[in-house]
Amino acid sequence: MSSGPKYLRYLVFAAVGLALFFFISRSAIPMPENIGTKLNNYKDTFTSSSSPSTDSSTSTSANEEAAVINKPTNEAPGSAGASGDRVNATFVTLARNGDVWDIAKSIRQVEDRFNRNYHYDWVFLNDKEFDETFKKVTTSLVSGTTHYGIIPNEHWSYPEWIDQDKAKKARETMEEKHIIYGGSESYRHMCRYESGFFFRHPLMLNYEYYWRVEPSIELYCDVSFDPFRFMKENNKKYSFVLSLYEYYETIPSLWDSVKKFMGNHPEHIAEGNSMDFLSDDGGKTYNKCHFWSNFEIGSLEWLRSKEYIDYFETLDHDGGFFYERWGDAPVHSIAAGILLPKEDLHFFNEIAYYHIPFTHCPTSEQMRLDLKCSCNPGDNFDWKGYSCTSRFFDINNMEKPPGYENQS
Ligand SMILES: Nc1nc2c(ncn2[C@@H]2O[C@H](COP(=O)(O)OP(=O)(O)OP(=O)(O)O)[C@@H](O)[C@H]2O)c(=O)[nH]1
Ligand SMILES: [Mg+2]
Prior knowledge:
Blueprint: H1 3-28, H2 35-39, H3 62-70, E1 89-94, H4 100-113, E2 121-126, H5 132-141, E3 146-150, H6 164-176, H7 185-196, E4 209-212, E5 218-219, H8 227-233, E6 238-240, E7 243-245, H9 254-264, H10 275-278, E8 289-291, E9 296-299, H11 300-303, H12 306-318, H13 320-323, H14 328-339, E10 345-347, E11 353-355, E12 358-360, H15 365-370, H16 389-395
Parallel strand pairs: 1-2, 1-4, 2-3, 6-10
Antiparallel strand pairs: 4-9, 5-11, 6-9, 7-8, 11-12
Helix pairs in contact: 4-5, 7-14, 9-12
The chain binds guanosine-5'-triphosphate and magnesium ion.
The site of magnesium ion has 3 residues, from loops.
């Protein structure tokens, strides 16, 4: 009879022992946060409104594409922040079907380093319909909801005021001069689309912020915070990780067009702007500095503002997207430099990034260790002679990180 309480004691010991064992093994083995929920029928409990499944209902099907383009919807995209943790934001990628494996690599990097903990949406845009492989592969990799959109023809063709023979001759001349992408017609449509239209695509209309991702990029460090939230909370409108000088032959008359815009719209020019980043003589000439736009986190509402649209339309009517080969990088950068006050621009030092051929790798060793970075600091482009990042630090009175001189 006295064995009753004894057995009870053994039972309690066993239960405590088992609980301890589970606790220790769980904390010792690094488990992906959402593995349990992934196993649980792909249901996501980290955030309530996004469903990372391969079910076609989470992505816009080919048949729905046309409908989405003609009829902006108020539901899916904007609901991303319903959990309260997220900002109303999306990743965005312009790509061809043939880019699928290169964009797959980029998505995997972004997911592993950041988005697996946030499940932000991803919008894919294309001038042709996305094929099933592209949609299947990308939907399986993105932890948020994917959307696929076709670009309306009027955003990927010649406006009526463009002389197409003159444009063709310009391409031939640039090709003879071996100017990179100088002979390409599609590259010009791409640059014009990124400059003036992607943020007006119906799939983008319900979002406030975007993060642009290109094929074959690398993210070398953990992104241990939410950059979208940072942008919103700090009222930032445009951000970058790499900057450099533009190839002059692609933009000989761009600054003339910008000056025309500034003359016609003095009301749009921000006080306390970053003109000194763009010009060494108070605005007379362009020094060719620009933020590298294959990485961008920015405000869609700013790009949709009257200021930006008036700016884009002035440039577009001058024809340099076709008669020269204006890139969206200088076009966005000049806009950010003259239409926004300095404080609205941001350099994301913590986001280590590569797009062929340049690398941004944080100068600080402590930061690289804390963020589990895999980049070689010797590859960091920030302080090299062809980068404009030093100039950005100077005009904003920012202190350069210790050791930067050794990386120049
Ligand atoms: N749908 C579509 N996307 C395009 C086209 N041309 C380029 N893109 C996309 O537009 C973005 C920029 O094009 P890239 O070819 O990467 O241009 P780049 O970064 O200047 O040059 P690279 O050094 O080749 O990367 C990428 O996301 C491409 O996938 C096109 O004709 N159609
Ligand atoms: Mg690229």
